[in-house]
Amino acid sequence: MKVFSGAQPSGKIHIGNYLAAIKNWAELQDKNECLFSIVDLHAITVDYDAENFEKKINQLLAVYLAIGLDPEKVTIFLQSEIKEHSELAWLLSTITPLNELQRMTQFKDKSEKVAGKSGATINAGLLNYPILMAADILLYQTDIVPVGQDQVQHIEFARTIARKFNKKFGQTFKVPEAKVLKIGAKIMSLVDPTKKMSKSDENQESCIYITDSEKDIKRKISRSVTDSGKKIKYDAKKKAGISNLLTIYSLFSGKTIKETEKHFINKNYKQLKEELSDLLIEKLSPISKKIKELEGRDIYLKEVLEIGRKKAQKIAKSSMETVKRKMGLSIN
Ligand code: AMP
Ligand code: TRP
Q1: Which domain holds residue 257?
Q2: Does residue 188 form part of some domain?
Q3: Would the N or C end of the chain have less CB density within 10 A of its end CB?
């Protein structure tokens, strides 16, 4: 199977990104043909710091490698280095109804946030974001897209566009499928467990970043919002905070939710939080250590991206030729 996914170099990676996405990418790499991109063109659809952007890209690449993506097995590349992504996005935009873009949840959320800031405008890039994402996926004839819950609507959109293109110009694109975890596809904020854990959250206490120190992890987990009850039980509606902590524990320990509930049966919230902190520290500290080591290895990181660029470029070029031919465009 062909697997494609990506993350934006837009901030520190948190355990939601890790558990729902990147960790699973590493698990898929042995049996599939995988491409994992650093989607810098998506990250510039909101305010960003151009001066530090290259650093952010390197940090994300270090995360990919530290988590175990093996550049010998998978193609890791920087989206903006493959011009075909932008080119295909333009072509797909010509068959995309405007209202499909306007109804996307992420667009509505992000544009609301932008509208709340004085003097800020909602850029077309934010609206067109799902088209670029569809181009990323379709360019490589992807079967499976492992992501968190928040991206499922975008993959539905990619499916719709693929079908529409195929109908209009003849069979060209594979119709991709989202792969999401049954439990853990949406890790919630530690401060407000009704909201998702988000890189762009201004309150850093809401996220556990994979590079957080022991002290940070202990503090954030011990202060995480729960409820006034006592029972450690999974109930996402009535006990959102406790359910989130149980989910995180379950995914890091490899135990099911049922087994996790059993493990905590006669224990209190404080004990749950202490055990969870210890588990997070145990699992995250080796990753943090590797990230730090890799961040200093600039030449190696450049090499990884260069190898990936060459591999991705070859596929993208040939796909674009097919697409252009089908659309009656010149390929010269
Ligand atoms: P991004 O931060 O937008 O680059 O997201 C990278 C990956 O992490 C995507 O597959 C997202 O769906 C996933 N993701 C982001 N936030 C969460 C969350 N709170 N829970 C689970 N997955 C998430
Ligand atoms: N939009 C995705 C996110 O924010 C990142 C992304 C861009 C992506 N292109 C993709 C994910 C293609 C999967 C496939 O998480």
Answers
A1: 204-292
A2: no
A3: C
Kindly state if the Cβ of 8 falls inside 6 Å of ligand 1: yes
Which pLDDT score is estimated for 116?
75
Identify the pLDDT of residue 294.
96
Q: 136 in ligand 2 pocket by Cβ < 6 Å? A: yes
Burial class (CB in 10 A: 0-12, 13-18, 19+), 87: middle
Cα-based torsion angle of the residue sequence 182, 187, 192, 198 in order, rounded to the nearest 10 degrees: -140
Is-contact 17 148, C-beta < 8 A? yes
Q: What is the per-residue pLDDT across 279-308, written as a single tens digit (0 to 9) for each?
A: 999 999 999 999 999 998 999 999 999 999
pLDDT at 237: 94
Q: What is the CATH number of the domain that holds 227?
A: 1.10.240.10
The whole-number average pLDDT for the span 124-137 is 97
Same domain assignment for residues 130 and 87: yes
171 and 258 belong to one structural domain: no
**C-beta 164 within 6 A of ligand 1:** no
Ligand 2 atom closest to Cα of 17? 15
Q: Tell me: do 143 and 177 sit in the same domain.
A: yes
| CATH code, domain with 135 | 3.40.50.620
Q: Which DSSP string do the residues of 266-311 spell out, in sequence order?
A: T--HHHHHHHHHHHHHHHHHHHHHHHHHHHT-HHHHHHHHHHHHHH
